[in-house]
Amino acid sequence: MPPAIPTEDVDEVEEAPHPRLLVGVLAFCGCVVAVMQTLVVPLLPHVPALTGSTPAAASWLVTVTLLTGAVCTPVLGRVGDMYGKRRVLVAALGVLVLGSVLCAISSHIGVLIAGRALQGAAIAVVPLGISIMRDELPPARVLSSVALMSSTLGIGAAIGLPVAAMVVEHYDWHTMFWASAALGVLDVLLVLRVVPESPLRTRGRFDALGAVGLSGALVCLLLATTQGGEWGWGSGRIVGLFVAAVVIGLVWGYYELRVPSPMVDLRISARPAVLFTNIAALLVGFAFYANSLATAQMVQEPKSTGYGLGASIVVGGLCLLPGGLSMVALSPVSARISAKHGPKVTLALASAVLVAGYVVRFYTSHSLWLIILGATVVSSGTALAYSALPSLVMRGVPVSETAAANGLNTLMRSVGQAFCSAVVAAVLANLTFRAGGHTAPTLHAYLVVFLIAGGAALAALAVTLCLPGRSAAPTAGNVGGRGPKVLAQEGA
Prior knowledge:
Blueprint: E1 4-6, H1 19-38, H2 47-51, H3 55-83, H4 85-105, H5 109-121, H6 125-136, H7 139-170, H8 175-194, E2 200-202, H9 208-231, H10 236-256, H11 266-269, H12 272-300, H13 313-318, H14 321-341, H15 343-363, H16 368-394, H17 402-430, E3 432-435, E4 438-441, H18 443-465, H19 484-491
Antiparallel strand pairs: 1-2, 3-4
């Protein structure tokens, strides 16, 4: 991969703002885009009646966000590395605003799906923010700041669910989309005011064919995964999509190994330090999402099931709130562990905490407070893991590819969540019984979900132990102790 080059003269290099202000703005942006991932979950049961659509069409409000997020995250990360991270960050936030406004002004299911697709594309803000932090912050602050930025994916998702539930229960449902648009506009203004544009760029031309190939493979894979339960896992459409994903992926990989400036540098991605980190990200994403999916639904099951608590949508969402707060508190703890012992140790500890959390979940499924405790333990493990993953990625890739590499790692978390959604839906749909005149999942179904998620966390621990030994924690560049801005100024 060609090296990064400065594109501005020394006099034109912007002075970085106060580190805390920069980190605060970027973390706020990350939380806002993460909220979009769970924003409509409390609304889904009501969408068919509100829009005159079907439950299958309503499910696309979640599916399309996952698809566009998966496609845009690595692509926009690469574009940011090449053409300016702040520029792409502002564009992604602008797309979020546009999508939110579309959802706010319409009750047509087609318009809502289009708006949700635009909202999903903004998840690329997280890897872009990580890359900006690596470029702009003093080396001593990079680790803790990146840990917080990465954790916003979990923090926003955990906080967004109860907030959206309260809006759905007490206000017109369009209100939450107007609020999303307002937050997006605020994000844009803050970024333009606070975040400087890095002078660091990656040489070469944008790999458009590589972007199309990667997008095609991801869409086929995730569409098959998310729609398998609806269309039938053995149906021609699902089998065809899986086959297409494999074929497109193989052709794409062959092409990427031969293009001078690839969309994804597969040689770097194949390094054990990067490969095992991305596999661990997929497994952690799976384990994290199972907690979110199972908790809110489990406490809302009617008491006639024998285990359900008959809680409201709001209570179901609030069960995840302590976990979101724990993620805020633990991101600096994770950074300190990584600084002292290395991010590999942090990720191993995180995986062990996830396993412990699902052990708690398995044995405490009848008491609301014990359910909240188990969910919070799982969230705590996720916080440690999400905080350590970018550090592991950054120590294995050149500074010029930070956004693209973290975009790929974020993508792997999304793929893990997609597989988790399919597995949880299949388990809860197939292990059912009649209770109180309606069909509901059995308690055994939820316990199976916890066992599978705990197994994924245990696999993440095994993969983490295969990572190369401890190396220096990443600084703002890992190049002779000098950050990218210093290198840019010297190059200029």
